Give the backbone structure.
Amino acid sequence: MKWIYLLAPFVGWAALVRTRAVGAAVFAVLVGLAAAIVGPEYGWFFIWPKADLQAGYPFVAALVILAGVLGERWLRGPRPENRFVDPESGAAVAFCIHALAGGALVLMYQFFAYDAFFPNLAEVPLPPGLTIEHVTGTEGACGSNFCSRTLTIGSPAGVTADQVEARLRAALAADGWTPGRNGTLVHPHGWLVDPRVSEVFVSGRTVELSGSDGSTAR
C-alpha cells in the first residue's frame, strides 16, 4: 500500500508527459519528494516533520505535476485532442483519490498518533567532537505519557562534563529546542499533523531523551 501511495504521482505524470526536458525535471522532483518519505524509514537521514511530509506528499506532488503540464503547454501549445484516450481526466481522478488518501492519513495521525515513543538518536544534534558512547536502546523506561532512553556523551580528552553540557545545550537551542519544565528542552515531533513532543534533560555527560505523547510536559 505504501508503494502504491508513493508511485501514484509517477504513474500520473507518465500519462501526461510530452517532452524529455520537462518530463525529466518533474520526475527528478518527484523522486526527491518520494526519497523524503522513505529516507527516514530506512535510516538514510532524519527529518522532524515526517508525518507532515507523508500527509502533504500527494498535494505537493500534484502541484509539481501541474507545473510540469503548464510548462509543456507553454513549450508545445495545447495538447491535441484524442477521443479514445483522455489522460488528463484519468490523472485527475487518480490525484483526487491520492488526495483523499492524504486526508485520511491526516485523520489517522490525529486519532492514533498520541502514543509515547522512543525518539531517534539523530534527533540530538551533537557538536563536533562529541559522540554517543552508550545508549540504553529501545529498552528504556516507558511511563504513561512518555518513553525515555539514557545516553552517555563522550568527548575529547580535557573537555569537562560541564563543558559537554554547555556545548550540547547550545547545540540543542540552535536546532530549535526550547526550555520546558524542570530544566528540560523540548521540540515538536512534527509541525501540524503529529502532536507528539521530544524532550531532553542534560546533566553533564548524561542525556535523558524522551518521547512524549504531547498531553503533558514533564
Notes: The chain has a mean pLDDT of 79. Residues 121-212 form one domain. Helices lie at 2-16, 20-38, 50-76, 87-112, 161-174. The first strand starts at residue 131 and ends at 135.
